[in-house]
Design a protein that fits this description.
With 656 residues, the chain is an alpha+beta fold. It has 22 helices and 16 strands. Strand 12 and strand 13 form a beta hairpin.
Length: 656
């Protein structure tokens, strides 16, 4: 049905497109609904990734009539839309940058099929994770994938592109990607598949396709403000009026004033002054970008001061650092590259027209008006009616690999070769099982102890204690405190009836590791617990006053602590109150919860789950997903971290 009417004349575009249908998963409405549920700190992190232009989308509908009309005239080989015999529109990364504000420089993204450690889920699962994930590497990668799945490069799959997910979550991924080029390549690939097959689904960003047309083909009867990025100015109503007006005037599309690039003729390229003009153009562009960056920093500082003054009576929110080179990506230690200036933070635009003196905020006003002091996002210039043909300086395109030529992919092993050799040495049954292979932070493990990492063995107390010590000392700047599992073992076995403060300190304080972390900054306490050959993890959140039981066995959630768990809570809270030097913790004020965590698929991986929970649990949720099917690889990586640690006295045994 979606093919009907394609042979009809363009003289009646409305009737032609009304009989045609297409299907797409491009959904700005869904994307904006999620973004409205994220706090301002996450919005700032998104802007620092240069994806802030997407937060300003107001055009939520995909107009099928104009999209079908453009797809029919799309030349996928030359990447251009042939409007007529004399006019065409080239689809380039520059236009994507102009409309969405995405980076148009960097390397080309090579989507790989290599699986990652992160389990793949549906778009709805990604939405749930983005709401609860703290700002960090996992949040940024998940957001990029979600933006591609809903706006930038949607596919026909309800769960998005699986290969893109694993590529973004690969160990080698860095966000120095030319995302504008990626949007173009995915759109061209989707239109090619639609033109050559009988499928009704169209892959790629149809929102970009329709906005690309109305931005480049303009009519004098509809004036639109000039914004940066262009998507800020276009709403659903404005787009509808613009398309209806063109059909009313010309009965078909493609009859507006076309603003296209200057043709790349030999005289343009080989002119004596072309290099000089290009240098002048680049210098002017750098100057403009620097000025835009300065204005954005000023506005952020004013916004920070306003928030600080508004919360002066209560708890003060974290203000932006005063350093002019501040970057959220650098602040959070995330390896995302910066691409020039961040996208602007546009707001709703008013009817274009000259501003009066009353519309300009007072620079001497109170703190509440400081945020609105001539924001750059409000500087929208109504487009004047131009009869003459407009041109711009054409910049030389970068040398890029053709997206139509398949590039070779080398499948990398998930386990490095040096770690494989070390593991083979550890699991060698012909060697002495009593040989000591790990000696770090006051703990010693033999080949026999480390054998529990092989196959389907249970994790022993000695190994769990060593890993707690390892985590405690490897991250000296953390707010986590790890307690030896031997403390839990003794408390459970002794079943004390009375737990006085003096007896607790005399019997159990020795199980606290020597650490450089000041106890005053400890927020979360982790205690692995082994009962009836099953490992669980108890997390004490001293800031939110809650006790969390992380159990990979699943089943019915527990609402109350057992007698053994209650005794453990009393011991841990007493030790923490003593070490912190403040008042005692009242156990009755703590809530007990059993959060949803990944479940084990067998009877022997509970210890590995407890280790991964200790590594990735923070503030009530996992900061990195855990795949139950990857337990064998997790075992070897945990073993390798201890064997190859620079603090392992026997590390030289595994180095050539």
């Amino acid at each position: 049905m979606h093919r009907q009417g394609r042979q009809q004349s363009d003289t009646d575009a409305s009737s032609t497109t009304s009989e045609c249908t297409l299907l797409t998963r491009c959904s700005p409405t869904r994307f904006l609904r999620l973004c409205s549920q994220l706090d301002e700190r996450k919005h700032e992190a998104i802007r620092d990734m240069n994806f802030g232009g997407l937060l300003s989308i107001k055009c939520k509908e995909v107009r099928h009539n104009i999209c079908l009309w453009l797809i029919e005239r799309f030349d996928v080989g030359l990447k251009k839309i042939q409007l007529s015999s004399t006019h065409h529109l080239e689809v380039t990364p520059d236009v994507v940058n102009e409309i969405f504000g995405l980076p148009m420089h960097g390397r080309i993204l090579q989507v790989s099929s290599n699986p990652s450690e992160h389990p793949f889920g549906r778009i709805r699962d990604c939405e749930d994770r983005l709401r609860v994930l703290p700002i960090g590497e996992e949040f940024r990668r998940a957001f990029i994938w979600y933006a591609c799945a809903t706006i930038l490069a949607p596919t026909s799959r309800v769960d998005g592109c699986r290969n893109l997910w694993h590529t973004l979550h690969g160990d080698e991924f860095r966000n120095d990607i030319n995302w504008a080029q990626y949007v173009v390549d995915e759109l061209v690939s989707g239109i090619r598949h639609f033109q050559q097959s009988q499928a009704a689904w169209v892959h790629g960003s149809l929102v970009f396709l329709q906005l690309f047309y109305v931005v480049k083909v303009q009519i004098s009867s509809v004036q639109v403000p000039v914004t940066m990025p262009s998507i800020v100015a276009w709403t659903d109503d404005l787009l509808k009026i613009r398309l209806q007006q063109e059909l009313r005037d010309s009965r078909s599309f493609g009859h507006g004033e076309v603003f296209e690039d200057v043709p790349n003729t030999p005289s343009d390229v080989e002119s004596e002054d072309s290099d000089e003009l290009r240098q002048q153009y680049d210098a002017a562009q750098r100057t403009i970008n620097e000025q835009l960056t300065i204005m954005q920093r000023v506005m952020r500082r004013l916004h920070s001061r306003r928030r600080s003054s508004a919360h002066a009576a209560g708890s003060s929110p974290t203000a932006f650092p005063s350093s002019p080179s501040f970057s959220h990506a650098a602040y959070h230690g995330f390896p995302f590259a910066e691409h020039g200036t961040s996208p602007l933070h546009p707001t709703n635009f008013a009817t274009p027209g000259p501003q009066t003196s009353q519309d300009i905020p007072n620079m001497q006003g109170d703190a509440e008006s400081a945020e609105d002091v001539m924001p750059l996002r409000a500087m929208m210039v109504p487009q004047a009616h131009r009869r003459s043909r407009t041109h711009r300086v054409r910049r030389m395109a970068q040398s890029l690999k053709s997206p139509f030529v398949p590039q070779p992919h080398t499948r990398q092993s998930a386990i490095p070769m040096d770690l494989k050799e070390a593991i083979a040495f550890v699991f060698n049954t012909d060697m002495d099982p009593s040989e000591e292979l790990v000696s770090l932070y006051g703990t010693h493990l033999t080949r026999g102890n480390l054998g529990c990492f092989e196959g389907s063995h249970w994790i022993g107390n000695e190994v769990m204690d060593a890993y707690c010590r390892f985590l405690q000392h490897e991250d000296s700047g953390s707010t986590k405190l790890f307690i030896s599992p031997y403390l839990a073992e003794i408390v459970v076995q002794s079943k004390p009836k009375k737990l006085a403060k003096d007896s607790i300190l005399n019997q159990y304080e020795r199980f606290l590791y020597d650490t450089a972390i000041p106890y005053g900054q400890v927020i979360e306490v982790f205690l692995p617990l082994l009962i009836k050959n099953h490992w669980t993890l108890i997390v004490f959140d001293l800031y939110k006053l809650r006790i969390q039981l992380l159990d990979s066995l699943g089943g019915r959630k527990k609402t109350h602590m057992t007698g053994a768990q209650n005794n453990l809570a009393k011991v841990v809270l007493c030790l923490m109150a003593h070490k912190k030097g403040g008042g005692e913790f009242n156990l009755e004020r703590f809530s007990f919860v059993t959060p949803d965590v990944p479940s084990q698929t067998n009877e022997h991986d509970c210890g590995v789950f407890a280790m991964k929970f200790m590594e990735h649990w923070s503030s009530g949720s996992l900061t990195k997903s855990i795949d139950p099917t990857q337990m064998p690889k997790y075992r070897l990586k945990i073993l390798g971290n201890m064997l190859l640690s620079q603090h392992n006295a026997h590390r030289t045994m595994f180095q050539k």
